[in-house]
Amino acid sequence: MKNLKKRSGYQWFIEPSEKMRVPFILFGNDDIIKNMDENVYKQGANVASLPGIVKAAFAMPDAHWGYGFPIGGVAAFDPDKGGIISAGGVGFDISCGVRTILTGLNVEQIEPVKEKLANELARNIPAGVGSTGKLSLSKDKIDEMLAGGAKWAVERGYGTNPDLQRTEEYGIASGAKPEYVSDRAKTRQKEQVGTLGSGNHYLEVQEVVDIFDNKIAEAYGVALGDIVVTIHCGSRGLGHQVATDYMPLMLKAAKESGIDLPERDLACAPIKSDVGQQYYGAMRAGINCAIANRQMLMHLVRQSFSHVLPQAELKLLYDVSHNTCKVEDHVVNGKSMKLYVHRKGATRAFGPGHPSLPDDIRDAGQPVLIGGTMGTFSYILAGMKESEELCFSSCSHGAGRAMSRKQATKQYSGREVVRNLAQKGIIIKSASFKGIAEEAPGAYKDVVSVADATENAKLAKKVAKLAPLICVKG
Amino acid sequence: MRKDWEHYSHTADMGIRGFGESIEQSFANAAIAMIAVNVDPEKIQQEIQIQITCHEDDIELLFIAWLNNLLYEISTRKMFFSKFQVEIKDGELTGYAWGEKLDLKKHDPGVEIKGISYSDLKVTQENGKWIAQCIVDI
Fold first, then answer.
1. Interchain pair A434, B135: CB under 8 A
2. Predicted confidence (pLDDT) per residue in A235-246, tens digit
3. Are residues B11 and A64, on separate chains, in Cβ contact within 8 Å?
4. Which chain A residues contact residue B11 at CB under 8 A?
5. Residue A143: phi, psi to the nearest 5?
6. Which of A307, A374, A459, B124 supports an S-S bond with A395, CB 3.0-4.6 Å?
7. Pairing of strands A347-348, B79-89
8. Residue B7 touches chain A, beta carbons under 8 Å
9. Which residues of A are identified as catalytic?
């Protein structure tokens, strides 16, 4: 891309041209930017052309070609300047996210019972296509869940109050309007509450193999050799249906409002419009669905551990979503503004001292979780002050795909992937060998370089590196 | 060999494409391509028939609506389908799908589709043949 300019070692930008209202800013090292799909530039420029966008459109170091917004894209909109809200800018898996749980155990305690624990988790966690949760909810109960989020789950015995302290927005997304979620979406969720799903979703038992920042690690309660559990999943069928329902409504709303969409997947509506506000309420309900889901899965993890390792004491480190739109206060040009921040495949990363963080970790900054893929490392990072000024306190969310699913199934055999990982001491439990081939470690970008670039670009600071021991795949 | 449908590559997701002598046939074949993202259509018996109706004035949005409706039926009925028939009149689509209940052992499903995107969406005629295509989000 000839318009791409380097601003500093880890920051690149494209000046506004044609319909772009603001620049497009990318974070990453030379290699990451050089290998980035050209479509990311095109999509970033498209996002930069949307009404009411503030400062710039951004791409995180793990960005790749999405639909409408790039995956790894961040954009904030001002409701007072005709700003928009976009279903495409949040994505189909509303509030897909990661939850990392401390166990109080170390690797020596896990090793002798690893196989037993893997079997127990695989038996207890509903995963894969067509799997159903242990709880079937009536429509009324679904509405309560959509209004109450993880707090709803905890009030029903699926967790503890300290869990909520360590969930974004303290376990309940404000502004949720279950009445704007269709009956179809609710019907799809009826039997999917407390399920992992499939695709890139997983539950991993991991060992802390490296500590980069002792002080923050201590604040987070993470030490070398510790065992943690990480859950990656989202709002399941309900979130998918909310996106499906609002995409055509937003296409029409955009047209009626005279918004010129370079791509239909950018479907959006003015924030100050009926469709915009209805989507916001439905999407926020989708966030509650996702965090309730991860809370209920954590409950199942607690149950599984209590059967195999009763001495384990599972505490939530943090739960963070990476497909969201949130109303947040940000200072732009010295002025505090309420902005609708879209993060699609990007993580909120508040720096040290941010008032939204719980007391006990406020000085350390918000825990940020970057998931790798089976067989590769994952990272715990901490939000940095600088990222507020750089990109509305946002950072990367994962390794990001490097290879298409079609190519991955051609190149890898699911059975072989499982065998190779077993040789490295990693147990994979999955209902689908086909799914494993598509999710083979080689199909993803190198998560180590994503984490390094995230830190070097001053988006979030590396705290600990995690290596997988057990992986339950959806 | 004549091809009725195919998959094509997209970094994170998957492209599906149906071919046909008519728009209707291309829609029906694209549905097989969608099913084939997570299960081999050959493994699905055509035991139960369901009906789908949807309306959109724009033919491309009608294609999306058709696939979205199918996805909803797959998810809520826990069924897979392997034969489709589509009729379109004045923006009104009536579709039929034949399939059976999900059987994990028999069908060995892979990853499920989260949604149908508008990316690369096309309903078009090339060399006398209809093509209906889009990218599905996984």
1. no
2. 999 999 999 999
3. yes
4. 37, 64-65, 401-404
5. -60, -40
6. A459
7. unpaired
8. yes
9. 397
Per-residue pLDDT of A292-321, as tens digits, reads 999 999 999 999 999 999 999 999 999 999
User: Residue with structure tokens 């809370």?
Assistant: A295
Give the sheet arrangement for strand B92-101, strand by strand.
B48-55, B92-101, B79-89
Range A4-402+444-473 classified under CATH 1.10.3730.10: no
Any bridge partners for residue B134, and if so which?
Answer: B16
- Look up the CATH architecture of domain B29-130: 3-Layer(bab) Sandwich (3.55)
All residues of chain A having their beta carbon less than 8 Å from the beta carbon of residue B8 are 406
SS3 A386: helix
DSSP single-letter state for residue A206: E
Cβ distance of B109 and A130 shorter than 8 Å: yes
Q: How many CA atoms lie within 13 A of B21 on its CB side?
A: 1
Instruction: Name which of B101, B118, B120, B123 to mutate to probe chain A: the one with the most chain A Cβ atoms within 10 A of its Cβ.
Output: B118
Place of tokens 């407390």: A194
Q: Count residue pairs from A and B with Cβ separation < 8 A.
A: 110
Number of CB atoms found within 10 A of residue A104's CB: 16
User: Is any Cβ of chain A less than 8 angstroms from the Cβ of B134?
Assistant: no
User: Where along chain B do its domains lie?
Assistant: 29-130
Give the integer Cα–Cα distance in Å for B88 and B84: 13
Please provide the DSSP assignment of A302-338 as one string: HHHHHHH-TT---EEEEEEESEEEEEEEEEETTEEEE
Greatest Cα pair distance in chain A: 64
